[in-house]
Amino acid sequence: MSQFFQIHPDNPQKRLIDRAVQIIRDGGVIAYPTDSGYALGCHLGDKKAVERIKWLRALDDKHNFTLVCSDLSEIGTYAKVDNAVFRLLKAHTPGPYTFILQATTEVPRLLLHPKRRSIGVRVPDHQITRSLLDALGEPLMSVTLIPEDEALPMTDAEDIRDRYGAHLDLIIDGGACHLEPTSVIDLRELPPRVVREGRGDVAPFQE
């Protein structure tokens, strides 16, 4: 069974954050709260952990993985960002958006879309997630925790423990999350293209 940490959503306990980060660095797969639903995360480039997440989510090789980043400067390390894209990112981060961009060579090949060489990036507005990223010092490889054959992400840590507890190393209970997933915006070419409408307002990307 997985470990289960109850972490305060506004004032995360440093001791528990540090333990969570160690689990990630040791190759663990975690479920954690974000400003949309709960997500699955693992260490950047950990092939075994990525394969476990693919299995848990029943994902194929064409799925666009997401790097959850602490800020815009970190996005610039892993994705190609010109001035126009930077302005869009600055206006909408942190927030419940995932942006698809062309990846740089810093992104491990196992995370890339096999044909498009693209990567999802996001800067969430959630204190637990931001504390994890600050302690980790690098992005978290992540996917929204949407069960197979369902459309909406899981929002309750107890439900996640009941369903996935045997297959995760850690579940972080940060309270209930929003029901909607992130809005997904493709910024590889302008004007932007809305791939999925979720919690983030997509109107600014359709003007």
From TrEMBL:
Domain YrdC-like: 14-200
SUPFAM superfamilies referenced in this protein's UniProt entry, alphabetically: YrdC/RibB (SSF55821)
Matches recorded under InterPro entries: DHBP_synth_RibB-like_a/b_dom, Sua5-like_dom, SUA5_domain
GO MF, one example: double-stranded RNA binding
Protein name: Putative YciO protein
Organism: Halomonas beimenensis
